[in-house]
Amino acid sequence: MIRGINRFLISIFLIIVLGVIYLSIFGINTNKFNNKIINQVVKIDPRFDLDLKKVKILLQPFELSINLKTLGSTLILENKRIDLESITSNISILKFLKNEARIKNLSISTKLVDIKNLIPFLRLINDSTNLYILEKFTKDGYLISDININFDENGNFKDDYEIKGIVKDGKFSFFKNYNLHRLNFKFNIFHNNYQFKEIDFSFQNIKFRANSIVARKKNNDFLVNGEFENFDIGLSKIKKSNLLSDFFKNRNISSLNLDSKNKFYLKLNSKLRIKDFNLTSEIDLREFEFDNKFIFQDFFPDIKNKFSLKNHKIKLSFDKDYLNIKGKGNLLMQKEIDTVTYDIKKDKKNYHFKIFLDLLNNPFLINLIKYEKIKGSNAKIYLEGIYNDKEKIQFKSISLKENENEILIKNLLLNKKNKLSKLDYFKINLKNKDNLDNYIELKRKKKNYNITGRSLDITEIVKNLLSTKNENNLSNLFDKKSSQINLNISKVFLDKEFYTKNLKGKINIKDSEIFKMSLNSFFDENKKITMTIQTSLDGKITTFYSDYAKPIVKKYDFIKGFEEGSLDFYSIKKDGTSSSQLKIYDFKLKKISVLTKILTLASLQGIADILSGEGIRFNEFEMKFKNKKNLMTINEIYAIGPAISVLMEGYIQKNELISLRGTLVPATTINKVIGSIPILGDILVGKKIGEGVFGVSFKIKGPPKKLETSVNPIKTLTPRFITRTLENIKKN
Fold it and tell me: Cα–Cα distance between 386 and 324 in angstroms, integer?
């Protein structure tokens, strides 16, 4: 009997085990739980209706629960339908046996849902402005999602829900001009938290990829952060995309190619308006080429019309009030590649910049002091400063270092017209290309500037002062503030051969102009050189005097072999026109190509030989002329000497045309002319029997490099020539 009982119990056990296995694997279909599931869905929103198929019951013995699952259901809301793949739930076995079965969760899986149909469905649940805007922007795309919902002891919907899913081939259009397409990503949404992964999309034909974007709700704000990348961004794609069109407008950018890795933080209010934003990027800038709109030819002689940045590694940080760009890479702005490092920061009003330029094989010049970087040597240029919204530039520091050569500038302030407003300190310590020492310092004391030093090469400065091009004068450096420059320099080089000592003086600046100036210096043997400027109602009067004329005259390339002599210059300028007079006394010339040609054409070969040999001496040279813009009008050039005398007039249109005409007379003829004048000739020359009056007229005309000279002998000298000769004799 015991054996029979055992068999019975074993049979019952096997039946139960088999039943559990069957219910765990195959389950059974029933309508018993349909209403419970529908009731729980209705608790989410009373307007919901659920077209529910039979529910399959699967036993989960190890968890002491029953799993409910239905396939192919449809969620309905006001005639709008969402097809569901499945709905699953879980019920405690103990509750089920006590007939207290309660659904504590629902897991809902959708089929492939058209996003264009999903958004109107969601708007029926919550008709927010955000969903309305999203509906207008959405053009295409599909979604699959799994929704997990929990209920409390009373069967009420809990807010610890979780939604997972995938979006495929999303397409959105913003304001007709901007398109986002091929959007794919995975998402996971739970209470006030939103996670998006493996995001891939194209915006305006530019590809983007995001590893992760996370958003969470805090109070009434949304906090969003994430990472994204973009690849192979080229100029053609940007122009085609209309993206950043305002930035690229009128910038003449011809080439751009980059990749970037980016991290961002975004804070949105309840209306999805940005309250805070932060972006950090690592940019691989392979190429960026743009037109050169800067005037740097005076410093970089081989400068190109286009600048090109190549292989730059850039770190960028940005928020709504702050921008920081740090980078390093190659810069091609001359024939060879240089290296540039930069750190640019922008706050609400100012750009703060630090730029380090490393020059190796490219040239660099400072013409004003005849500095030229040695080819192959390393010159380092450093710029640090601030550029503000009022277009003023303040350089906190500018430095140049090349071997032992150094230039240092501190606190240089320029106005929006790039004129000098303030300069605290300036130092030059270098040898220029003529191997001449330059060592000076400038220091500011309130409104005044003191320039001191042991030596300075002013070859180019003098050349600019002698130039007829008015734009080159010193006044264009200053803004409208008044200031005084005090100079005290031990040694000043006029060129490689001549120098002066103890340059002292003052320069007064008023309303961007040199108002007053007085400079004095000395050659050896106490010979002096002076320059003054005085401003009055009559105009600006400039004087220049040198006991040695040669250092000044030799700067004119067409005059060779100038010796001896002193120079006196006077000019008055008013309303853009200057009237000037230049005098040179007791000098000798060895070679002037135009004069040699005139003498040769006039068959005065003997005088021409003297000119090219020992040289022709002149007692006096006087030139009266006017300058207005690029036109020099020569009223008179008169030179007299023992061998020949010259009288000339005409005009010079700078770099375009030279037109001169005049008279050349051998000195013996002048004596005969003067001697033939009644009474006065007897007194000055004595009674002589002459062979007649003789002279040569000539014309010089043409472009500066293609001058044509013509000569005609004349039998009678002009009264003007005789008058000027008499004036000179009387004066002497």
Answer: 14
